[in-house]
Amino acid sequence: MVVWQDRLDTTCLDTAPTFVHMKLSPRTAPTTNSDIAVPRVARRRVEAAPEARAAMSELAARLSPDSHEPIGGQIFRVLRQAIFAGRLTPGTPLSEKEVSEVFHVSRQPVREAFIKLAESGVLQVLPQRGTFVRRISPRRVREGRFIREAIETAVVRKAADSITDGQLRELAENLREQKLAARVNDTAAFLALDEAFHYSIARSIDCIAAWETIQDIKAQMDRVRYLSLPDVSPLDLLIRQHAKILAGLRAHDAAAAEEAMRAHLREILVSLGPIARRNPEWFEADEPERVTLST
């Protein structure tokens, strides 16, 4: 497990930064004060709660001044992962000043990270109130899944025609590691391996851009994935779905690989409702769909 993870850290840092230290909709909707629970009292800036500040202090230790990745990118990555993993919960206030102090950096890279986080839909800026971790939008989860399915089914079809024996062995090794992570109920390691599995398929057709394109799109999906494990979406079920994708690739059966990928990515539609009901404070009110994106 450790050897494989270390290889991820060194080989995928530039192309897939979301894999590193994983415990791991482009459209920005109009901001309304009803989107997030913020006390009506103070119009002044709100500081993060002590537990959130403690979480950020721990995250600050993950920054590497010697890394080739810019500091702003590192801050974006660690804050996003903290939001995904629930270390920074919906409604948590974040300020450029406070984050820059905790991370021991200037405010400019923090501002850059906040802009990217807002664009990916996980932070919300409320004028005269501050910046807060945004609730999960069920509609954006469905939109992200719809777009991700369109891209990843096309990728896996192409991969079925061109994948090499070496690339198949890499996926098989990843699947073996997933089983080990599931056996000890290490959901953080499992999610990192899940990310790597999908990334490796895109890399097998020399189209890393496909994977990079969906990173912001799937941000809301990733937050739901963290909440779904291990009970709502059992790890063994997800492993079986990955195994079907791999079987289609091994057989060079594009139709089978595509169908397996489609079924896998639609699993979130099954878990979304139960998770939202169990964690109502994490979710925005759902919006009706004029055109159903879940079929």
Structure description:
Residues 69-136 form the HTH gntR-type domain. It comes from Trinickia caryophylli (Paraburkholderia caryophylli). Keywords: DNA-binding, Transcription, Transcription regulation. Pfam families: FCD (PF07729), GntR (PF00392). This is DNA-binding transcriptional regulator, GntR family. The chain has 295 residues and is mainly α. The chain folds into two domains: 32-133, Arc Repressor Mutant, subunit A; 138-282, Up-down Bundle (Four Helix Bundle (Hemerythrin (Met), subunit A)), CATH 1.20.120.530. The protein is 60% helix and 3% strand. It contains 13 helices and three strands; from the N terminus they run H-H-H-E-H-H-E-E-H-H-H-H-H-H-H-H. The two termini are 37 Å apart. The model is unreliable at 1-45 (pLDDT under 50). It has a three-stranded antiparallel beta sheet with strand order 1-3-2. Helix 4 packs across helix 5, helix 7 (165-183) packs antiparallel against helix 11 and helix 8 packs across helix 9 (208-217).
Q: What is the CATH H-level superfamily of the largest domain?
A: GntR ligand-binding domain-like
Number of strands: 3
Q: Number of helix segments?
A: 13
Q: What strand line-up does the widest sheet have?
A: 1-3-2
The main pleated sheet reads as: 3 strands, antiparallel
Structural class: mainly alpha
Multimeric organization: single chain
Rg calculated over all Cα atoms: 19 Å
Beta-strand portion reads under 5%
Q: Roughly how many Å apart are the termini?
A: 37 Å
Mean pLDDT: 83
For the record, the count of structural domains works out to 2
Order of helices and strands: HHHEHHEEHHHHHHHH
Bulk shape: globular
Helix content: 55-70%
**Which CATH class of the largest domain?**
Mainly Alpha
CATH topology of the largest domain: Four Helix Bundle (Hemerythrin (Met), subunit A)
